[in-house]
Amino acid sequence: MTFISLADYQLPLYEGDFEMERGVPERVRELQRLFAEHEALLIASPEHNGGYTASLKNAIDWISRPRESGEPGVLLFARKVAAVVSASPGPMGGLRSMLGMRGVLEKLGAIVIPQGFSLGAAHLAFTKDGNLADAKADAEVRAVGAGLVGVTRQLSSR
């Protein structure tokens, strides 16, 4: 398992002319290599104005670009098992962003498991050490992780 924070990558805004003039940035190549090394994705994102974050969409747009080998980057998502969790300060808990991200991943060919988790009042939901304060919420998000692992194991054994 590898934890990725997009803040650590500082990717330029994806734009076709940028790619034509400068190519795919090395930080994108690093993300592509990480995606190639893993069988599953657990994507966690806050909700911004009813959608997933711009940095998440930008990263996906870059990762889907052709790899160094020439292989389409979009294949990094194809048949990869994915789960989506989201959070928001509002009562919906990022449900809209979670649904939007599911659609993007499915369009790219990922197998998105039905389990998901949206956390409302996220700004109040964590302890000082970063853990979920509510045992029920903690169990729900862990169940998503377990579901992701279970489906990934089932599909990789075929």
UniProtKB/TrEMBL annotation:
Gene3D superfamilies according to UniProt? 3.40.50.360
What is the species of this protein? Caballeronia choica
Any Gene Ontology CC annotation: cytosol
Q: What is this protein called?
A: NADPH-dependent FMN reductase domain-containing protein
Residues in NADPH-dependent FMN reductase-like domain copies: 2-122
Q: Which Pfam families match?
A: FMN_red (PF03358)
UniProt GO molecular function: FMN binding; oxidoreductase activity
Which taxonomic lineage is given here? Bacteria, Pseudomonadati, Pseudomonadota, Betaproteobacteria, Burkholderiales
Q: Which PANTHER family match?
A: CHROMATE REDUCTASE, NAD(P)H-DEPENDENT FMN REDUCTASE LOT6
